[in-house]
Specification:
The chain is mainly α. Helices cover 45% and strands 3% of the residues. It has helices spanning 10-23, 33-46, 89-98, 104-116, 127-141, 153-157, and strands spanning 80-81, 84-85. A two-stranded antiparallel sheet has the order 1-2. A hairpin with a 2-residue loop joins strand 1 (80-81) and strand 2. The longest helix has 15 residues, at 127-141.
């Protein structure tokens, strides 16, 4: 596997997702899986996770789901901006699911991303759009407490 042929953080994200699936009893095998896992191991060996705990933002914050079980998510809370981790819904969700106490700012960001993202409440989310929507609402209301309602599921399921 050539480093030039993979997407950013692919070697961290895909193995992390495979591991989470395996924890649920789902094992996926494919050609070159061992190559991918070795690539991840090499990458992680070079990374010091404490870089995420400092004041400097890192592009690694875009891929926090790749660090589930490897970092202390409470120590990345200070990187939240308008409730998100680098404007990334997936990183923000990973943060919220793995920090020790619920963070309402992250919840508000994710609710807004789902309600106003590309899927308009049906699940498709884009980072750029959701961050822009949240920023607009925060600037308009001049308040950190933005209430975003999700669509009533009883109306869509019946």
């Amino acid at each position: 596997m050539s480093e030039a042929s993979v997407c950013i953080a692919f070697e961290l994200l895909v193995p992390a997702h495979l591991s989470m699936l395996q924890d649920e009893g789902i094992t996926l095998d494919f050609p070159q899986k061992s190559v991918l896992m070795n690539f991840r191991a090499k990458k992680l060996a070079r990374l010091d996770p404490s870089i995420l705990y400092g004041p400097q933002k890192s592009t690694l914050l875009y891929s926090l789901e790749g660090f589930i079980g490897r970092i202390n998510f409470d120590k990345v809370q200070h990187h939240l901006t308008l409730g998100s981790q680098m404007g990334s819904p997936s990183s923000t969700a990973a943060y919220l699911m793995n920090c020790s106490s619920w963070d309402i700012r992250a919840e508000i960001y994710l609710r807004d991303a789902i309600a106003n993202g590309a899927g308009h409440g049906c699940g498709s989310v884009t980072a750029r759009q959701s961050l822009r929507n949240t920023a607009t609402k925060l600037n308009t209301s001049r308040s950190i407490c933005v209430t975003v309602g999700l669509p009533d599921q009883s109306k869509t399921n019946g």
